[in-house]
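call fold(seq) -> tokens
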Amino acid sequence: MSTIQQHMLSETRRHFFAKGATGLGTAALASLMQAGVRGANGDAVAPGGSLASGEVPDYLRKYAPKAKRAIYLFMAGAPCQQDIFDYKPKMEEMYDKDLPESVRNGQRLTTMTSGQKRFPIAPSKFKFEQHGKSGAWISELLPYTAKMADDLCIVRSMHTEAINHDPAITYICTGHQLPGRPSLGSWLSYGLGSENKEMPAFMVMTPTWTGRKQAQALYNRLWGSGFLPSRYSGVSLRRQGDPVLYLSNPEGVSTDARRRMLDRLGEMNQRTLDRIGDPETQARIAQYEMAYRMQHSVPELTDVSDEPKSTFDLYGDDAKKPGTYAYNVLMARRLSERGVRFVQLFHRGWDAHGNLPGEHENQCKDIDQGCAALIKDLKQRGMKFVGPSIIYAFLPFTNTKAFLFPYCLRMPSA
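ret:
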């Protein structure tokens, strides 16, 4: 047996799952369709014997997915939800009383709070009002978002066992507290692909913030591909310099020279792929070609001079400043228009360890107008160019205000 044959036969666990993924998907689809038999031409045969011929079963028709892409607005650092969406008037009566054991139920505490002798309760200092036909309670910190109350779905029943930032954020982004799993955007990119050959299917942005500057760190694994090929990782749009790292040609290298170099490099990588069969080589070939195409598509994306004045009236003047939250949500809309499946924004600075009211007020000013503008913008366009989209806003865990300002007690459940 030759060395090459021996290498190809020693299949790794990663290669096995990568090659078996399509088979598992086919099995899952067959299960969903409840097809007992398949005809000679591959058409599904319904349990009653009639040919389904690719039709969606009636029991699934009402659940047919409509969204074509998603925009994920992630508030990193854990905002105090009872200052924003979770109105708790009872806390006014419980001011300075100790947190009942029935709330904690023996749940563990973080190191920075475990030494405290008591946990007196403090209500929110911000006013709440009901908005829209739904009567959603929203605080005065989010006046623009409050106007879009009937377009929001506020879920207060989420639960996680994580009480520290990094495992909590890793869990929400990848489904597991331990690093190494593919992120949500990577799975969607892997499963659905991209509608635009000039852009990746998964884009990530990390806008500036005005809150606590010693913010929780963000790691590439939050938008990484884990054990999937690296081509499904999120591609970051940067706040300064080239929008994408190394997007511009080096000084003295022309576009024609870059094209010739990529052609030769592609030929060498293809020979390596044919000989060894490592999917990462295939991913490398695809990423080089994508980077070349992005040299043309990204500058057009980030040039907002073609936006009308009404856009900046809606998003605010900050939408003209690269790196700001308003600019990034505008980019999210422009990316969705261009067929990018999954766009994720990480807004940092929400982990207020001191001056919580002041810092949350500034943080909300960062995001409020932009978030509301994004919803309104997509609605008024009638999704004509963007198509049905889902906008998520997520917190890594909640902060339970269980002792006097300026601090919060971190709890795993809301």
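Residues 259 and 267 are 12 Å apart (CA to CA).
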